[in-house]
Model the fold of this input.
Amino acid sequence: MVARCSHGPGVLSFLADLLSTVFERRYRSALEPDLAGRSMPELCAILLGTSGEISGAETARHILDLYADMNPTDRLRFFQFLAEDLGLDPSAVRETLAVFEAEPSGETYRQFAAAAEPKRQELARRLNQVPGATAQLVQMRQDLLSLIAMHPELEPVDEDLRHLLSSWFNRGFLVLLPVNWESPADVLEKIIAYEAVHAIDSWDELRRRVEPSDRRCFAYFHPAMPNEPLIFVEVALTRGIPASIQDLLLDGREELPAEEADTAVFYSISNCQAGLAGISFGNFLIKQVVAGLCRDLPGLETFVTLSPIPRLLDWMRNHDLTIGSDPDWQRRHAAHYIMNAKRCDGSPHDAVARFHLGNGALVHDVHARADISPNGLAQSGGVMVNYLYDRAMIAQNHEGYAGGYAIAASAHVQDLAAGISGMRDQGNLNGEPSL
Done:
């Protein structure tokens, strides 16, 4: 007679996990003496040469633990090893390409593809098989980025890591979740820590941003880093377009019922992981949040930012300009900067402008004394800008920007910028305007 298990699949899963854990521990205890004392290059060679799943995972864990304990000098040596010893072999690439060109086939293509991929990419993939390794590899790239300015020979290593992380953090793997006062405490703590635009100084301040019915916060998460927000956006639901951050963040303000709002204001977008620099999530984030808000609050008609201008005063100082004290003069300078200050490639000098214009927004308005915090005054003299996401024009604006950095702007902003251009022609950029 066959005994039947009455406890369901959960017990079987538990027993399977238990047996697997016991097996892995026994295997690990037998393997650890072989790994102890090995140098990092030796461990990397072992990992690249292994075919066993458990032995490979254990070696990967050993490498990651060893890296975590390294001092800055040893980490530099590790990255130099990746650059010099685990890069491309140009002769192998040329030879396999010649063979493929002479005799195209699946096999000759595989040989060429294997030769054309640096070994350090496969090393990173094998390191990533360990639970928790994705976050460690993101941190590893953050360490690498801090070294590149002084060690440009490491740029190919960064290119490989960025390539892999772009695949692993593809939009299809990201999960958009609301962050509110009921979210886990460790997530809320990270929102406080990662806020990069308008500092959150206390739990009470955080509560004012995520609990009221006219406030929203959304963040992207990745399954491999479930408690680590990748990027988050804070949204205020208002009537009309606001002209200052003080009004939005005012303690004791009157709460607006969400269904009475006609405008969604994106007033803070913060990237959380320095190791994911250059991997853009923001364009997906805004589009998905707009779609969700439209679905939940059909009365919303306007989607706009209240954005900082982080480098305005730096740029003006570099051009021997002063922003002056007159609000209209300040707005003209800011409009001129956003519309006309360019990088060498022709794109806007301002990074926030590049982000929103590249996503299809237009420059809607500029406001003086919009951020009178010490940081706001130091960055832009307190000036802020609205970028408008007009859903009927987003695609057209994006195409214009992508095709030649054409900047979509309201007639009002164009007039403000033109006023400064006229002053430039008269050689009077530093004077107060004649009104």
Confidence is low (pLDDT under 50) at residues 1-31, 431-435. The chain is about 55% helix and 10% strand. The chain has two domains: 18-168, 172-425. Residues 9-35 form the longest helix (27 residues).
